[in-house]
Write a structure and sequence with these properties.
single chain; DUF2752 domain-containing protein; DUF2752; transmembrane; 7 helices; transmembrane helix; mainly alpha
């Protein structure tokens, strides 16, 4: 008789990608149908509320909503860094999920240079958008 109490290895291997896909579909649906600009459902940025300055992520929710509706100019105005980094994230996310099966690819994509470059770009964006009002 087969033990039904423990999940089968094949099912367990697919559970994380399936859960991630479900969460992604729900999040895309929420951001597509609900406008963060006018909905109290979405939280305000605590950094901006406390300091009056924009953090690197300020406007990201509105930018995602605009991108899902094909409005790239509005998304750019809300958060240009998100618009620029979306294709990069689209490559990096699957690599993150495949890191155990393809560790060499993971190490090449998430190398020290990538981490420091990301840190520098986000920091520069944070400063520039508050100094020049981007």
């Amino acid at each position: 008789m087969e033990d039904t109490r423990t999940p089968k290895p094949r099912l367990r291997a697919y559970s994380l990608p399936i859960a991630a896909a479900i969460i992604l579909v729900v999040a895309v649906g929420v951001y597509f149908f609900i406008d963060p600009s006018s909905s109290p459902v979405f939280p305000k940025c605590p950094f901006k509320v406390m300091t009056g300055l924009q953090c690197p992520g300020c406007g990201s929710q509105r930018a995602i909503h605009a991108l899902l509706h094909g409005d790239i100019p509005s998304a750019w105005r809300f958060n240009a860094l998100l618009v620029i980094s979306a294709p990069v994230l689209a490559v990096m996310l699957p690599v993150q999920f495949m890191r155990r099966r393809h560790p060499q690819l993971y190490l090449k994509v998430f190398c020290t240079a990538t981490i420091w470059t990301t840190f520098a770009v986000v920091t520069a964006w944070w400063i520039a958008r508050n100094v020049w009002g981007w």
